[in-house]
Design a protein that fits this description.
Chain lengths: 514, 358
Amino acid sequence: MKADVSSSGPPLVELIRISKRYGDLLANDGIDLSIEPGEIHALLGENGAGKSTLVKILYGVIEPSAGEIRWEGRPVSIGSPVEARTLGLGMVFQHFSLFEEMTVAENIAVALSGEWSLANVRNRLSEISRTYGLALDADRAVWTLSAGERQRIEIVRCLLQNPRLLILDEPTSVLTPQEAEHLFVTLDKLSAEGCSILYISHKLEEVRRLCRRATILRAGRVVATIDPRASTAREIAALMVGNEVGDIRTDAPHTPQGEVLRVRNLDMPPVGLHGQALKDINLVVRAGEVVGIAGVAGNGQSELFAALSGERLAERNDAITIAGKPSGGMGIEARRRLSAAFVPEERLGHAAAPTHRLSENTLISHASTEVRSGFILLNAAKRLARTIIKSFDVRTPEGDPQARKLSGGNLQKFVIGREIIRKPKLLIVDQPTWGVDAGAARLIRQSLVDLARDGSAVLVVSQDLDELFEVADQMAVIHQGMLSPQKPIGEWTKEAIGLEMLGVAQAQGGAHAD
Amino acid sequence: MRIELTPRTSVSPVARALAPVAAFITSFLIAGFVIWLMGRSPIDAFDVYVLQPLSDPWSLQELLVKATPLALIAIGLSYCFRASLWNIGAEGQYVMGAIFGSWLALKTHGTDAGTWVLPLMLILGVIGGALYGLIPAFLKTRFGVNEILTSLMLVYVAQLTLDYLARGPWRDPKGFNFPQSVTFDTAATVPPILEAGRVHYGFVFALIAVAVTAVVLGRTLFGYRLKLTGDAPRAARFAGFSSKATVMAVFAISGGLAGLAGITEVSGQIGQIQPSISPGYGFTAITVAFLGRLNPIGILVAALVVALTFIGGESAQIMLKLPLDLTQAFQGILLLCVLAADALVSNRIRLVARGGGK
């Protein structure tokens, strides 16, 4: 066994030949991983590479089929998250588990065991907030907080239990660039104090900013343990994907033609207590171009998607014009008949029904061609599913599997392929590569660009700025339901976008100063 | 110690087919044990419950008679349940269908109205059940009222309406003050399939409902729409299906079929209006629908099985002095066993020792 001789004591935690088998699938295959005290260790890999399985084993959520976990050199078995916490592990999940109606302090107290009184929590909270620069108001209700602030609650919740090892799962996916930088400072500080951090991500730049060691997983195995600062992003990406990652071709001549989508002064009231209202949205997408909409999650992206797709109707019919037809009051099927196509953010449950086969899932947006006088043309549906699988390189475990059996990246390729194959004049995509591996993301971005070059209008809503810089010709930023002016991509800097995301630019512009 | 269920990656079709059989055997073993605790021989009970009804031509007919309303109602309910809409007021829709249809039977009583009476009665029965089913649907789509509550409460309204009619306006004046109507004319009676047999044409309606539903659910856009609404409501909206229209449609269908069951039962089996016209078919049909896994053929089989427990339960009461409640208990055990068997086919069960290694 390879003991790490460079450090004085044993590693804080050591995973030895960890394997996890689900039926025929080997999710983790003999994984070795060790984390030193005070180290920020990155765990890199595509979706489906086995990162979450490994972390769940470490946190006691699932049991390994084989292998051993050592804590400070002693073999331990972690049977549940409670045992993991007693041992000194803390975990910040990608999706927060907070009660919206309760205050920050209440949310923290609820998660801790009985001996913590609310007053106690409040004291420790302000202490920790000061020490680590995690500004939090103990008495604010959670629903009034931004995603970054919510994440701070989760982090503070872990820190209150004095963890020796903090696990963070894709922590920056919901943050602005400025908020992310803030988080990195906190993590550096924690690490300097001797708390180890396991940092799970697929964003190479931040891994290089934070970590000195990174373990890269591919298909359930460790392919390399490297120093991310000593390798280029391209080399690391190649290790993760298993082959060289190419750039997106955008060089084809680009001449935008007529307007396909125009949004004029679109207003929409919020849905429910914590929904986001849309305020005075103006937007133009022309044939042959990709327009990007950037913004931090929860600023009205899904509301905008619902309004543009027709899942929610606008009050004025002329608020939205598709292919020259006022269509604000049209339902989604009517808009599809105007040759518009839509891909929502959620793959499972919104774009596709998890327990339905892929062929059945084609019906969702192809009912007009796959149904004759009320009867489903089963063979046509199966043929279409096969064509999509082939043209968009969808890897499936069987010929016509249920949607939930596909990995995130493959299902996303299928869902996007299902719309592109209709050759729509207008395609609206919300978060096209969210949680998708690098290989699939590249294919998806390329097909969006290709569709635009073939003369369609494409609108991409995304939180991933790098993605927008790669594919978009024009861009605007959404913040609290308001859309910034739309400008050619070359006129945007990352800093300017960050300011728009925080709403600072609008306040400076005086348009919404209060 | 704790018990963990982990989903199996692949489910063998053989196991899935054998699951109900295993469930059946298990529930017989459990019921046999209960009967043994009550001091009776489980073997005698099995004979009385299962073997005798199945070997006697009279009870075989009775089996089909009892299975008819169960199958009709459960088929209707399967439309609702597929779409994850919980209509548990089929009993009320059944009663309302019976009331609507019987109105015509009593209106034409003693006249020489011709063969048009019966078809019209059946249509009225369907309309009555459908309209009554649309009340909770309307309340849900218009005001967001939970359909479970409204559909259940409307059962009592329907039952009391029937009670009032049987004791009041529709009572037979020459009936010695018994709370029942006149006996329906032949023109208002669903005829038996075989002359002098007990099985009436209601059973044929049930078979037709099974066949039509198998096609609708498996082959049409409407059936797909129900499945999608039930399995992934957001995806259904994304596909452009209006959820309000779906709610209205499935409640109308299940109410209509329950109404049809009600009027065929009254005019084919009972022959007159009484304060009570159902031993709880509308509720038992919920069990039947899930026993049949919401599959039309499965529902038909389940209806026959549950009808058997009704008949067996009656003879066990007479011959073994076993309480009739045991029948309901057995139906419950059977349902639980089938659901458990399904869960075990698609999941692996594992005992995990707590706190090992400490």
